[in-house]
Amino acid sequence: MTSKKDAHAPTKKKKFSSKQNYYAFRKSIENKKSEDSESEDEKSATNPDRNYYWKKYREWLWPYKIPLGLIFLMALLGMLLEMILPWATKYIIDSILLAEAVPPDTKFEQLHWIGGAVLGTLLLGEFLGALRTNRMTVLNSQVVFSLRKRLFDRLIQMPLSYINDTKSGGIVSRLSSDVENVTGLVQMAFISPGVAIIKVFVTLGILFSIRWELAIAAAALLPLLTYLSILWVKKARPVYKSMADDRSQIDARVAETFSGIRVVRSFRGERKEKLDYAVGHHGIIRKKIFADMIEIIVGTGWSFIIPFVGLIIIWLGGSLYIKGSASIGDIVAFQMYTTMLLYPVWRIILSLSQTQRALASMEKVFEIMDKSLDLPDALDAASAPATVRSVEIRNLGFAYKKDLPVLKDISFQVKGGSVVAFVGPSGAGKTTLTDLIARFFDPDQGSILINDTDIRGFTRDSYRKLFGIVQQDVFLFDGTVEENISYGYRRARKDVVVSAAKRANADEFISDLPNKYDTLIGERGVKLSGGQRQRISIARALLANPEILILDEATSNLDTESEQKIQSAIKELFKGRTTFVIAHRLSTITNADLIIVLDKGAILEYGTHEHLLSLRGFYFDMVERQRASLKL
Q1: pLDDT at position 148, please?
Q2: Does a structural domain hold residue 21?
Q3: For residue 601, is it left (φ>0), alpha (ψ between -120 and 50) or beta?
Q4: Are residues 325 and 442 in the same domain?
Q5: Which of 18, 251, 274, 444 has the most crowded CB, counting CB atoms within 10 A?
């Protein structure tokens, strides 16, 4: 027989340490099961090709083609000026310093002229470098602002289903670090490797023009080393992408933790949240160490090869000099040009490595850019009517998930100015129905008509101007009382805001606040009571003066005294506008023109309060249960 203690013992969910998660990730890479290790056929079947994102990014940069081209030209000119120094050094050594036939006075004169000219080119090169860096900074700032603004504009118009599925921390991560990483591609993927490639070919051409034997020695190891470096760099990409995903999840969890800090502390969840945060970041650290190890291995190889090639040049060049086939100037110039050859090749490899980090962010950003907007307007959409004469719901059906209908064959019609109440148990579909009326979603079947016109024929913005909504879970912004009341009507005069607050019976407590209407109320109105937040929300709806009003449990968060104060304001609010009310307190809707009883997404009964009581059905039982509970 199971003991009481055993019966209530929680089932322990197996947790993995950051080390276990890290090794599982490493194994997925080795087995080519990670997202970035799919076959090309699998990638094309499930995700857009990476070249598609590159194309999107190039299209995004196209408006900046002129400043980008100027920056590239400045970098190219700076590179060409840099090429002068080794050649000038060779000339000075061979044709001036070691030239026995040239008199000392002439040597001094030539040395000063050439030295001064080279100094001028170096100063010009530095000036161009500083100017290019400044222009690059300005361009990056313009691109990051433009991209971030476009992304924010896109996100704020995304369907509610996407917003609900995406954690707030993930959205913040897209707007901050992901956009920042993408803008770095301008330098990493275009300017730096483009100039480096040109520099490599120019340098190789100069080397072969001096001594082909030394040129072959300098360039012999480049293909192999470059190939190995690219292989290593490719291994880093899935690591960086995984790190970006992990950061997004951690940011989302942090935002969620502090939004629900009261729940965390009430249930003593601080230790769990701290542990989850530490494990998440330990995982990121392990992956970063692995990615850095890849770069260290590649960097170590290059750090060795540069002096090694230099040694080969001195070794081989010295032999050629002894044989009389090369000059001292050739050897010195070769040393300098070899450094110029190896450094841009390493710059290209490093750019590839850094680009891997940006590629993951680029895919995340443009993936959002490609998503459909929330309920786009039809091409022939018209403005919504200024006055609502009738509202009709015709054969309405809706499901958040396929084969799991929330509403089924809902139909009713009311005149403008009517008060319609939706009642029923939790999960009956009441809030979903009002969300459809407000066109937060479009129905899967049937239609919603205003003045005999389908609401999908109206522009979205003009239609939503008809609405004022007071929700059960009141959301207030971190600002002043006045800013929250006038949120939908930013240019409202102070006296108009105060009038709306008085009609919502909110002016009394607002006047007792330290700074009255200029009082900061904190994030989500944390400095106010539930009833105070609710009355500000009602004042916000009153100020908007909507044609259609939706009250979703508008008095549920009010104490008895606050509810009594606001009932008269709500009755005043009902006048002259069509109102849809969701209420569990049935005493608040006895005067409604129409009461619709919903259960499991379908209409069970409808009519006035007296008519529904006379039916002695579902609504009658609800009223009796509430009456009995009040007597207890």
Answers
A1: 78
A2: no
A3: left
A4: no
A5: 251
